[in-house]
Amino acid sequence: MSIDSLPEFITAIERIGELVRVRQPVRTHLEMAEIADRVMKLPGGGPALLFERPVQEDGRESEIPVAINLFGSLRRICLAFGVDRLDEVGERIGELVNLKVPEGLMAKLSMLPRLAEAAKYPPRVRSGKAPCQEIVWRGDDIDLDRIPFLQTWPGDGGRYITLPMVITRDPGRGTRNVGMYRVQVLGKNQLAMHWQRHKSGAAHWRAMAERRETMPVVIALGGDPTAIYSGSAPLPPGIDEFLFAGFIRRTPVDLVRAMSCDLDVPAEAEIVIEGYIDPSEPLVMEGPFGDHTGFYSLADLYPRVHVTVVTMKRNPVYPATLVGRPPMEDFWLGHATERIFLPLLKLTVPEIVDYHMPAVGIFHNLVFISIDKQYPGQAFKVMHAMWGQGLMALSKVLVIVDKEVDVQNPDEVWWTALNYIDPKRDIEFARGPADVLDHASANFTFGSKMGIDATRKWPEEGFTREWPERIVMDDATKRRVDEMWTSLGIGIHPRSPAGGRIP
Ligand SMILES: Cc1cc2nc3c(=O)[nH]c(=O)nc-3n(C[C@H](O)[C@H](O)[C@H](O)COP(=O)(O)O)c2cc1C
Predict the structure, then answer these.
(1) Which of 160, 361, 453, 473 could form a disulfide bond with 379, CB atoms 3.0-4.6 angstroms apart?
(2) Catalytic: 58?
(3) For residue 113, what pLDDT band results from cuts at 50, 70 and 90?
(4) Alpha carbon of 267 to those of 15, 172, 220, 224, 429: distances in Å?
(5) Is the CB of 168 under 6 A from ligand 1?
(6) Model pTM?
């Protein structure tokens, strides 16, 4: 059964024993973040937290509880998606994109259910009043200070909304975009929108500015967990995140028309902030913000959002996350994306066997890729193909290894790569767009990239020396040692492999 709302997700998390209710008052100013940081650093990602008595900056207790780290473990991400393994979603996508029209009428007919599956989940727009519109603030009633937004790090420019679905529309094509972009609270009815220049929301804004039109924007908080996740997924522009969420959960996302503009919002959102951006207005200073790099991102100019209406459920829960030095909750959101997008990557770069973005690499800094190498120079082809794929264009260091290397195990990748490379021969430098958060690139959002070809080298690649074999004990000896192990009195883990899986 699908999980349709944030409270249902929280109940499901509680049922599997991964929720801690914090019943004592905790301040939204730094204290919640410090608690969440310690929890997120626990092995496996720590429990989800529900702060039932948030204390706001003016000392008042808020009636709106704060949920944090809801997505922060493999088990909870799987729970959110209704799967046992994250790869299940990717496999379903793989089946869809690999559909081949078979010979014969009966075989063709047997394809229909699978094709129908793809068309089954477009979002549905409800009529009438939705749960997210039980309470409505308009005009002077709008007061964002009554919502327990967090300040997460001491040097931050203020309070931020950190786990939103930012909904906009492409003025040309009319398609919707949902993006997870942090939003700074500037006052009772003013926000600053931090969509980075490479993201779809920013593209819509540039298009609206060109037309000199006011841009409606909605910030929805909460909803079913796949809808929340979908805002962070790097879908190609024009593909609706809510359709994608419906596909993941096998049930359409229910939407309702916003009250002050013609954008649709998840009917089960907890809180909805509707507003507009006037592209003719000067930009505002956004930041600094303690970011997922583990460093503060510097203050910069971003568009101001004027809030027109705030709606919410009668008893809403405010969902938040904390970013900072990894690992944090966002690792798990990114990990879900990594797994789901593997079959799509393979469509255009078919030699890819697997890939992994380890937590320390914060997604854009480091990507490990294993390939089925069939010809000389293939690792270089793969590097450039990756730098040509959507947001992969921003990845700074790529390490390409052969198919037998387990890229999910960073120790194994580095051990192999460092043994296999001759740096001068195997390192490729390229130039291209850099992540907005890369503070080291030679220029803002433009810098260099490094690809490391850590595959075994072929004669055509200039390698003619003998290549040594990996050291592996023979099976007969292993069996004999297994049999004698308990009598040796050494203890546990008779067959544990060296190194473990770490994110
Ligand atoms: C917790 C979290 C916070 C994020 N904050 C931002 C942000 O402030 N600005 C931004 O441009 N991207 C941010 N991202 C990344 C985007 O959500 C991500 O790149 C997404 O694919 C963008 O969607 P789009 O391609 O529809 O623009 C964040 C991601 C996560 C998981």
Answers:
(1) 453
(2) no
(3) low
(4) 24, 26, 10, 10, 48
(5) no
(6) 0.94
